[in-house]
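Page 42, continued from yesterday. The earlier attempt failed because a stray header line got pasted into the input along with the sequence. Redoing it now with the clean sequence only.
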Amino acid sequence: MKTYFQIRGELQRLKQTIEVLNESDLPKNNDWGGADVIITGLATEDQKKWLADQPVVISGQKTAPRRRLVVTKYHGELSWVFNQLRDLFGAHIDYITKYDFYGTLADKALSVPNPDGKEILIAVVDAVSGFLEQMNKAELFSKN
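This time it went through. Structure tokens are written below.
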């Protein structure tokens, strides 16, 4: 399991990678979906219905328990960042906290007005940095 300092360092390297690449050179992945978040370039009718059918959830989540649909022309790049963050935080995210984790990232992506490719990715990485600090304050990392 990665330590707080390892994750923090890898987040800094991820952000630097995004900053130095040309927007056209940013890595891309297939559309991402999980933990009540979908990232896509064009919303289908089924996805719109899924978003509109918000179930009532009683949960211990810190974020609002709701579905999120992120529609952006940078869906491939954003999906890549979500995959990078999943791999980085995977051992620290469980079946409950995944909704807060990915919900926070999706909310950040949705809140960036008229973003370019780099701007939306950096905003998401910055948001997860805040999540990392909250995890550290809650002493969720091994002391080793």
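Notes: Residues 4-137 form one domain.
Reminder to self: strip header lines before submitting.
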